[in-house]
Amino acid sequence: MKIKPAEACRYDIVALGEVMLRLDPGEGRISTARAFHVWEGGGEYNVARGLRRCFGCRAALVTALVDNDVGRLIEDLILQGGVDTTWITWLPYDGVGRATRNALNFTERGFGVRGAIGCSDRGHTAAAAIATGDIDWDEIFGSHGTRWFHTGGIFAALSETTAGVAAEAMQAARRHGAIVSYDLNYRPSLWKSIGGTPRAAAVNRELVHHVDVLLGNEEDFIKALGFETPTDDENLVDLDLDAYEQLLRAVMAGYPQLEVVATTLRQVHSASVNDWSGVCMTRDEGFRVGPHLERLEILDRVGGGDSFASGFFYGLLNERPPEEALAYGVAHGALAMTTPGDTSMARLDEVERLRRGASPRVQR
Fold it and tell me: How many whole angstroms separate alpha carbon 50 and alpha carbon 112?
């Protein structure tokens, strides 16, 4: 891939997506909680924040928020992560939220045999109201410049307009020489009332034609893009490396403009113990496998895939070979899942140590 030089751009990465206020009951349950911690989070935003906070990249966010105290709380959390808020559109608050509102996401972490649960409250949100023509993409990608643009299937599913916005942004990014990445991030709940899996596949198939680097898991590629299961076993979590290679190779063949396709590998022993790795297929170097972390202990798995993406993109932005980029992604994703919240609290030196196989001994 031809990545623009850093000195030619204001940003290393620009992300397009919704940012929600996450309400976290900690060790408890949503349905019985009496207090919540709050974090910010959103699939596309998490990637940009990880690149900024852990890897020191210059990151910006394109989204919309309602101008009330909840919106300003989300903004304050974004600012703490160091992400540029210049391109946030502020919509007026009507006093109730009948027209537009800010998104909420109630998420409990899970433990042992109890899986994590998410309960989103994000209908008619400010980000869902963004329509084509609302954002001056030529100013962002042309006048200011960015090396990388990232969005995903969560944003595309928010409303009847957001997939068009994603396509408009991708086309502008490519026109100005930015690498375009897209995380399929298939969520059945988001597509349920607007056409389900067939609609998700139709939308994503169109958008992926504008993408250079595609992320997803086995369910994403099969349900959100319509590829066939590469095995007779309907239990997709048990795919072996040969099946993953076959699946990623089929995706690359179906979209000739793709340069890289990558996925995390997660074997779930319990909500708090997973095997963790990642693989990718590149146009030049074929199928590559990242480090394998067995029986990784997890505090909060939400955002692990986004943090994998941050580390993986960091490697690619710095023109590291695929195996090294995967190692950054696997290490960063693993560390992100040892802390609460959607976003990473890891430092680059911690990622480097884990990437090189250092033990988790006390650092004094």
Answer: 27
